[in-house]
């Protein structure tokens, strides 16, 4: 939508049209279409939707039941984040690195129930960690780089709301 602006101090000058920047909508098919009734309980993990967000609360008595976005992604096997860890250092310190990955998930999941690891698999000498949330994937990549240095690359695809992290040392 454009807005017509007049140029000050120039009689008879042509109007200037300025466009407002478009607010791009991030499409995430796992987000709720509308506002969920409060409270809503996820029957899979026990997270509760309350005060506009998913939280770890005690299970309410008469709650609406609906699967949370993280459980939905896990059920569909459709990750939002991929973290690939590889290199000679990983081969010698695999258990230590995986322990750090689990620690980061535990810390994130305690505050944000939708941030979870879906799977950790060995793949041709590398480790692939899939997550339900792009922020957890980013946090894992940054924590591994901070702890063990190495080279970290990330690629975000806004059309798919997908983050790919690659760490190598």
Mean pLDDT: 88
The SSE string, one letter per element, is EEEEEEHEHHEEHEE
Largest sheet, spatial ordering of strands? 8-9-7-11-10
Strand content: 25-35%
Could you say which overall geometry the principal axes of the C-alpha atoms support? elongated
Based on CA atoms alone, the radius of gyration comes out at 22 Å
The counted number of beta strands is 11
| Largest sheet, strands/sense/barrel | 5 strands, mixed
Oligomer: single chain
Helix proportion range:
25-40%
Count of helical segments? 4
Low-confidence stretches: none
Derived structural class: alpha+beta
**Cα distance, first to last residue?**
49 Å
Topology:
Blueprint: E1 2-5, E2 16-19, E3 40-41, E4 48-50, E5 53-55, E6 64-65, H1 69-76, E7 81-86, H2 88-92, H3 94-111, E8 117-123, E9 126-131, H4 134-148, E10 151-157, E11 162-168
Parallel strand pairs: 3-6, 7-11
Antiparallel strand pairs: 1-2, 3-4, 4-5, 7-9, 8-9, 10-11
Helix pairs in contact: 3-4
Structure characterization notes:
This protein has 169 residues and is an alpha+beta fold. 27% of the residues lie in helices and 30% in strands. The chain is built from 4 helices and 11 strands. It has a 5-stranded mixed β-sheet with strand order 8-9-7-11-10. The radius of gyration is 22 Å and the shape is elongated. The model has no long low-confidence stretch (mean pLDDT 88).
